[in-house]
Amino acid sequence: MNLTTIQIKINKVFPKELIVLIKKMGIEGDSQGVRVFLVGGIVRDLLLGRKNYDLDIVVEGNATKFGKNLAEKIGGTLVSYKRFKTATLFIEWPKELRDISVQNDKFKIDIAAARKEIYKKPAGLPVVSFSSIRKDLCRRDFTINSMAVCINKDGFGSFIDHMGGEKDLKDGVIRVLHDKSFIDDPTRILRAVRFEQRFGFSIEKRTKYLIKHAIRSGIFSKVGNQRVREEIILMLKENFPEKALCRMRELHELRFVHPKLTLQRTIKSNFISLRQCIKWYNSTVYGQGKPDVWVCNLMFFLDKLSLDECNEVLEKFVFPKEIKKKICQYKIKGVGMLKGISSGKKVKPSGVYRLFADSSVEAILCLMAKTRSRSAKIKIRKYLVEYRTVKLEVSGSDIVKSGLNPGPKYKEILRDILDKKIDGELCTKKDELRYLNKKMACFGSGK
């Protein structure tokens, strides 16, 4: 691909603010006498005409020094990783792009020294040393991720492709760079599936053989489970994660997660329903925070496992406590909650509230997606939109004024008043106080 074509694509695909930032990094490279490149996914997606503003920069020199000097020029906070000869710069970013590549309201730029890697043992961390851009591209996972674009002032837009990435991109092929690639880093297996399904590509025949060979060798038992967890999360963050999960099943990749893990026959329809429910929630419910979509997807992914088996997966891959709590809560209470609102019996709004009050919104949306009961879906919607936002105007201090000594009865009384308010029997604070006094009369002299 020639220089003019790349420059046209840059101007067409990237926002002006991003182009200005990229050129500033090229100028900084010139001032330090080093060549600077865009590499990996951003180049791949540039050629595809897809938006991707995750800036991965490679410097033929010291990445930390480059990042430090760049930060002094454009501002931001630099975090360096000496072992891997990389750094990350967090900078302020225009509001128009705040939803992209943001971490704590900062735009993230990954900066790496051009390097080569030597894996001394299968699935281990590499020994890293400085190298050239050519050798840096040769160490990457797939041909479509091994392309680079120069961003120095002289030669801005020059395209580098030593591994045939552009051709494989046109042919829709996921091709590994060398035969030991999956032995060196088994997480590349998950990335192969993720990219294949995201782009509608196909894993090349030799690459597929190498994947199956690596899996049969038990290579996943040698890799750090936290690294695998991060790849699983990335897969679950895809727009259509069920495609990658089903492909994993075809390649017999599910066993390393758990030997009993299988996918539901309804997995595709369940995920379609889940996306519809999440879309409805995000467009209808305001001020309650958006759900973690990947957590919803994880709930469906592990749906066929028992509670104990789920716990084994969550412990094995060191998922955070908050995520474990949400998943286990869904497994323990999910079936009962659906039964509670799907039966023919009439359930008061306060009864629906009590069913869902302690559940995560992710679990509730999964239940909403799974149920085929129209009345159950309506009850869930009402809980999310109406019931859970009901707040009491009376408080513990009002109970004190009524003469009841502090104790466990406080919680019981407030819960009873809240139930009445959710059911529409109490509307104002005056109504709540009237009902409170009525409750107090039942306690007589129990002051």
Task: Describe the protein's topology.
Blueprint: H1 3-13, H2 16-32, E1 36-39, H3 41-48, E2 55-59, H4 63-74, E3 77-81, E4 86-91, E5 102-103, E6 106-113, E7 115-118, E8 127-130, H5 133-138, E9 148-150, E10 159-160, H6 165-171, E11 173-174, H7 181-184, H8 187-199, E12 202-203, H9 205-216, H10 225-236, H11 241-250, H12 267-284, H13 293-301, H14 307-316, H15 321-342, H16 349-356, H17 361-370, H18 374-385, H19 396-402, H20 409-422, H21 429-443
Parallel strand pairs: 2-6, 11-12
Antiparallel strand pairs: 1-2, 1-9, 3-4, 4-6, 5-6, 7-8, 9-10
Helix pairs in contact: 2-4, 8-10, 8-11, 12-13, 12-17, 13-17, 14-15, 15-17, 16-18, 16-20, 17-18
Structural features:
single chain; alpha+beta; Beta Polymerase, domain 2; Hydrophobic Seed Protein; cca-adding enzyme, domain 2; 4 domains; 8-stranded mixed beta sheet; two-stranded antiparallel sheet; elongated
Commentary on this structure:
By secondary structure, the chain is α+β, with helices and mostly antiparallel strands. The protein has four domains: 1-168, Beta Polymerase, domain 2 (2-Layer Sandwich); 172-256, Orthogonal Bundle (Hydrophobic Seed Protein); 267-389, Orthogonal Bundle (cca-adding enzyme, domain 2); 396-443, no CATH class. 53% of the residues lie in helices and 11% in strands. The protein has 21 helices and twelve strands. The protein has helices at 3-13, 16-32, 41-48, 63-74, 133-138, 165-171, 181-184, 187-199, 205-216, 225-236, 241-250, 267-284, 293-301, 307-316, 321-342, 349-356, 361-370, 374-385, 396-402, 409-422, 429-443; strands at 36-39, 55-59, 77-81, 86-91, 102-103, 106-113, 115-118, 127-130, 148-150, 159-160, 173-174, 202-203. Strands 1, 2, 3, 4, 5, 6, 9 and 10 form an eight-stranded mixed β-sheet that branches. The longest helix is centred in the C-terminal third of the chain and has 22 residues, at 321-342. It is elongated, with a radius of gyration of 28 Å. The model has no long low-confidence stretch (mean pLDDT 89).
